[in-house]
Amino acid sequence: MSGLGLEEWLNLEGTPFEPLSLFVTSLAIGLLLGVERERKQHPLAGIRTFPLAAMLGTLIAMLAQTTVSPVLIAVGLVGIIALGFLPEGHQEAEVQEPRTTTLVSLMLAYGLGVLVWYRQSELAIATAILATALLYLKPELTGMAHKLERRDLLSLLQFATLTFIILPILPDRAMGPYLALNPHKIWLMVVLIVGVSLSGYLAVRLLGERASGPLLGLLGGLVSSTATSLVYAREARSNPGSLGFATSVILLANIVLFMRLTVLAAIIMPAALGPVALVMLPALALGLITTVIRFRHDQTRESRPELTLSNPTELKLALGFAAMFAVVMFCSAWLNDLFGSKGVYAVALISGINDVDPITLTVLNLFGENRLGISQVVNSVVLAVLANNMFKYGLIASLGGRTLAWRCLPTFIASIAGMIGGLLISAAGGS
Residue 200 in contact with residue 236, Cβ under 8 Å? Predict the structure, then answer.
């Protein structure tokens, strides 16, 4: 693919102007970056210099390829860097734009121009858009950085260590008794717990009052309703002032589960969408109704206190949950071996305690291979969700306390009732 396709529009192929579209692409990239820089006071380079630098990169790359002299690209880059050593003029210091950011942006424009010549126009354009957004959002990024404290940055470094250093080196294979323990999968749960907690904490720190419970509940439900329930149940117990906030996060996260399973069926196996949606959507609707009632009750009876989420730097909770996850995995394998339970319903009931997605994917794939009927698929998903909800409610009651458990109970009952009602309707329609 070459540039923006201009040579096709003007029939430039085979003519001396065939590379013109690549220079036009570089011009557009330079203009994108240059417009943002032009808005600054007395910049080193602006709306004309940036396009010229990008097109220079394309020209130098063309000459380097033609003459088989790659060193020309480095020479051109040195020329761009030399612009930073030009005299600054006589503008007042307080209105001068810092030269380093503009110089690095100019070097980037030159490099993107080189990239365009090597037929990487899409990548160059995407990079230019990201770079322009980074330059334009300086006030927001600066404000965000100033809101973070030293311990917040330490938490980010800790999470990065857990995710990108420890997780990749753990073996991703079954081992131990009954081959039930997978170190990679268990540590992935640690990463998940810390990630959900950290994202919620940072959202509250950065957004303040704008970090609503429904927003965090939606995000947490898309990642893991179990992890979200665990994190905010613990927060509700340690910080009673966050009870209403934690309730909204937990309820929304658990309602999103039904929407997520419906979308999963639509993507993986559209033929099963109708029956699955018939069971999941009533649960979603009744859960939403009871949750809205809960929200209105909180708004009329309670005033939202100041929320002070604790910084998730301690790993005791995450490691404890990972240990519990490993125990449940072992018990599942042990029970399967002890009772010889190979039926899909038993597997769904056991595996659903930890995570609903794996069994859902499994039964949908088996349905696609004509190894399961649609009624077995729906029944398996319902059993997995029931087991998962009971497990999560036990976490909420044990970690969050009696008050939080009573607040969450109506939504859990309503959503389960809606799911069972949909199952009965589906069964009656099938008969």
Answer: no
141-169 mean pLDDT: 77
Cα separation, 217 vs 365, whole angstroms: 29
Helix (H) or strand (E) holding 84, with range, is: none
pLDDT of residue 183: 87
pLDDT of residue 220: 67
Positive/negative CA dihedral, 379, 381, 386, 391:
positive
Q: Do the Cβ atoms of 189 and 170 come closer than 8 Å?
A: no
Give the Cα-Cα-Cα angle 323, 329, 331 (nearest 5 degrees).
Answer: 105
Residue 224: half-sphere exposure toward Cβ, Cα within 13 Å: 25
* Whole-number Å distance between alpha carbons of 99 and 80: 13
> Which residue would you say has higher pLDDT here, 215 or 31?
31
Higher pLDDT, residue 220 or 107:
107
Write the DSSP symbol of residue 370.
Answer: T
Give residue-wise pLDDT tens across range 39-51: 766 666 778 888 8
Domain residue extents for the chain? 6-136, 149-430
Q: Give the residue, 169 or 8, on which the prediction is more confident.
A: 169
Q: Is 101 exposed, middle or buried (0-12, 13-18, 19+ CB in 10 A)?
A: middle
Alpha-carbon distance of 36 to 137, in angstroms, equals 10
Asked whether the predicted pLDDT for residue 111 surpasses 80, the reply is yes
Please, what's the b/e burial string for 238-263 (b: 16 or more CB within 10 A of its CB; e: otherwise)? ebeebbbbbbbbbbbbbbbbbbbbbe
- Across 121-160, b (16+ Cβ under 10 Å) vs e yields beebbebbeebbeebeeeeeeeeeeeeeeeebeebeebbe
Query: Is residue 268 helix, strand or coil?
Result: helix
As a whole number of angstroms, the distance between CA 320 and CA 326 comes to: 10
Of the candidates 137, 133, 121, the one whose C-alpha atom is nearest the C-alpha of residue 33 is 133
The secondary structure of 24-52 as a DSSP string is HHHHHHHHHHHHHHHTSSS-SS-TTHHHH
61 phi and psi angles, rounded to 5 deg = -65, -40
Q: What is the mean pLDDT of the chain?
A: 78
Which residues are CB-neighbours of 95 under 8 A, at least 6 positions away?
A: 41, 42
